[in-house]
Design a protein that fits this description.
25 helices, 7-stranded mixed β-sheet, alpha+beta, single chain, 738 residues
């Protein structure tokens, strides 16, 4: 019994059949009992009445009292000119489905086939290979199976053998390739006995010789192999290797055949057994392409010559990476074949990625018109951006590919390129030997060097060393998405947004290259390590930037991986985080008061002696990042005298800032602006409150609308309070000044 595709004219494997719940019809048909009266009949329910011509028995449950009197008698198959079939009993029959009577069509149903084999029933095939009915169907011979169904039902109605038909949802088997309805058919094909092969493949996972990532797929793998059926490997379309079997002319092809690598070898074998005059012909079928693919790990390396250099060098390999949708089609079969023919599992790890879907999570198909062409995507967004987007997916999880993701990662690629340009533009000239010697003197893999660096440099190098350890661990555990996200965050948030900006305080100083050299050394060191970690994701842009850096004697792709367990300074990380908090607080205050970006303002930083010590040493960095007036930047242990005329910021425990309000805004203009804004907000709020107090609105408006109005009113009230407090503060400042 095979799955037959009438359109493709070939057998297909169980895995190539997809079942879908589809609306159909359940037909109820009378089978008269031979030798009985008109009231003696059995009614069967079937979704495929055209297969009744292949019925070889009628089965009922042995404990079904409705039909016990008919067991052992004969039934007449409708529209067959009186063909008789036995009425039998078997516990396989479901008393509660349909009428509790089962038509047994062993030639056209997998379960009926197994039942017939168990009970010794004959097997009738009523179907041609093209889906038309054959001569067994009598008057319906030559009709397409679906046309025959319609005509047969019409004829059954005319003869009074049709009882009724009703809507019914059933699982319809369809060809994965062509989409047509698959026909179960008895056909002579080649099969592989799978149980012995599956047992070895199961043991490989149990003993840890093979690890599947993510681990949850091991359960699916085990379940499939534990319930595996024999594999039909014959195909009638020439999409694979010809089956290496030759038959003997004039002999029974099921009993007399030879297996060989070539026609010459087959003839020699046949002559040895049947004499010199024997004639042979090769089986016209080909092997299932998945059978050929299952041999790929070793057949491409010179096997069966196990002494071949490629085989010795590359088999078995370490890792197979593929989609989770072909875990059974390909992966499990490679494991079985590898163990069977070489005695070894072909790989140690299987990494299963998800499927790429459209932005709505739908599978890409020509019918939906949602197929994303990778060539067009590369032209628009770049190869590196596409690779990075896909690689950020989680193992085994499908990825929704959207323009927003691609646009974001194109921006990331551009950011990386621009960071590279910044580093290159701020390195010494190639002829400045002294400057390059100064840069080379920095040994960032030594704790002593790290301890002598300024705060921003210590912070970024320490964060880099932590990232290298984290990323290396993630790579070792195949958490590729985590690697991408962790490196992305460090590059963008720490290196580009903070350290590059902080480095400008040293690079643009006029004291000479001695001050700049530490920033140059750190920029170069951190950036080249970022390129190494990103290279597997974004090979083209990282290689181009690497080659542009001075002193590159080898390509990035063959450079050594960053060293792990390098020194880091946790205390300096905490100190710089305090500096970041202070900078953010000042930036937020500037934004809140709409201070022009180019305007530098005064500030008083209040903190303990210890904090003042390390913050004040980086006053150039603080002033640059926060747009402060360096000449009016003060560090003190207590609030300044004009504190009541300043914006008070708490950046962290024991770290505060006071920003003179007069430096940031024209107080009179700001009071006037906020007063107008408050009046407008109050009017809007009063309108919302009026609606909520209206019984008519509350009774007639949908609950969702009422809820939205309540939320808007609460939000407006909060904004009014904040604006009023700010206005009061400004007015009090004016009074104090007066």
């Amino acid at each position: 019994m095979v799955n037959w595709s009438p359109s493709l004219q070939t057998a297909v494997s169980d895995l190539e059949v997809e079942y879908s719940e589809e609306p159909g019809t359940l037909y109820y048909v009378k089978y008269r009992v031979a030798g009985g009266s008109k009231s003696d009949f059995l009614t069967i329910a079937t979704t495929r009445p055209e297969t009744l011509f292949g019925d070889t028995a009628i089965a009922v449950h042995p404990q079904d009292d409705r039909y016990s009197k008919y067991i052992g008698r004969q039934a007449i198959v409708p529209m067959t000119f009186g063909r008789h079939i036995p009425i039998i009993s078997d516990k396989y029959v479901d008393k509660d489905f349909g009428t509790g009577v089962l038509k047994v069509s062993p030639g056209h149903d997998h379960n009926d086939y197994l039942l017939a084999r168990k009970l010794g029933l004959p097997i009738l095939n009523v179907m041609n290979k093209d889906g038309t009915l054959n001569e067994v169907a009598g008057l319906y011979c030559g009709l397409d199976r679906f046309e025959a169904r319609k005509k047969l039902w019409s004829d059954l109605e005319e003869t009074g053998l049709a009882v009724k038909k009703e809507p019914h949802t059933s699982r319809v088997p369809r060809s994965q390739r062509g989409g047509e309805v698959i026909e179960p058919l008895v056909s002579r094909q080649w099969f592989v006995s799978m149980e012995p092969l599956a047992e070895k493949a199961l043991h490989a996972v149990e003993k840890g010789e093979l690890k599947i990532i993510p681990e949850r797929f091991e359960k699916i793998y085990n379940h499939w192999l534990s319930n595996i059926k024999d594999w039909c490997i014959s195909r009638q379309l020439w999409w694979g290797h010809r089956i290496p079997v030759w038959y003997i002319e004039g002999k029974d092809c099921e009993e007399e055949y030879v297996v060989a690598k070539t026609a010459e070898e087959a003839l020699a074998k046949a002559q040895q057994k049947y004499g010199k005059n024997v004639e042979i012909y090769q089986d016209p079928d080909v092997l299932d392409t998945w059978f050929s693919s299952a041999l790929w790990p070793f057949s491409t390396l010179g096997w069966p010559d196990v002494s071949a250099e490629d085989f010795k060098q590359f088999y078995p390999t370490t890792l197979l990476e593929t989609g989770h949708d072909i875990l059974f089609f390909w992966v499990a079969r490679m494991v079985m074949m590898g163990i069977e023919f070489t005695g070894t599992v072909p790989f140690s790890y299987v990494y299963l990625h998800g499927l790429i879907r459209d932005s709505q999570g739908r599978k890409m198909s020509k019918t939906l018109g949602n197929v994303v062409d990778p060539i067009d995507t590369i032209k628009e967004f770049g190869t590196d951006a596409l690779r990075f987007t896909l690689a950020l997916g989680t193992a085994g999880q499908d990825l929704n590919l959207s323009t927003e993701r691609l646009t974001s990662n194109k921006a990331f690629t551009n950011k990386l390129w621009n960071a590279g340009k910044f580093v290159l533009q701020n390195l010494p000239s190639k002829d400045d030997t002294s400057a390059w010697e100064s840069i080379a003197d920095y040994k960032f893999d030594q704790a002593e060097t790290l301890g002598q660096l300024p705060l921003p440099e210590t912070w970024v190098v320490s964060k880099l060393h932590m990232l290298i350890d984290t990323v290396t661990t993630s790579y070792d555990r195949f958490f590729f998405g985590d690697v991408g996200r962790e490196t992305y965050d460090f590059f963008w948030s720490d290196f580009a947004d903070w350290y590059i900006e902080a480095s400008k305080a040293r690079l643009y100083k006029v004291e000479g290259h001695s001050v700049a050299s530490v920033a140059q050394a750190v920029l170069l060191y951190v950036f080249e390590n970022i390129l190494k970690m990103l290279h597997p994701f974004m090979p083209f842009v990282t290689e181009a930037l690497w080659q542009a850096l001075p002193g590159r004697n080898e390509a990035l792709i063959v450079s050594s991986w960053p060293q792990t367990s390098l020194p880091r300074d946790a205390i300096s990380i905490k100190k710089f985080e305090n500096l970041q908090s202070l900078t953010r607080a000042i930036r937020n205050a500037r934004a809140e008061y709409s201070v022009e970006p180019a305007k530098r303002i005064s500030a008083s930083i209040v903190a303990s002696t210890e904090v003042i010590h390390y913050i004040s040493r980086e006053k150039d960095v603080l002033a640059l990042l926060s747009r402060l007036d360096l000449q009016n930047l003060y560090f003190t242990g207590s609030p300044p005298g004009d504190a009541n005329q300043s914006v008070h910021l708490v950046a962290g425990e024991g770290l505060e800032a006071y920003l003179p309000l007069a430096d940031m805004v024209d107080i009179s203009d700001e009071v006037q602006r906020l007063s107008k804004r408050l009046s407008k907000m109050q009017t809007e709020y009063d309108g919302l409150v009026a609606r909520l107090r209206s019984p008519n609105f509350l009774e007639k408006a949908p609950e969702k609308i009422v809820h939205e109005v309540r939320e808007k009113a609460a939000e407006a009230e909060e904004k009014i309070t904040l604006t009023r407090n700010r206005l009061d503060f400004l007015k009090s400042t004016v009074l104090v000044a007066d």
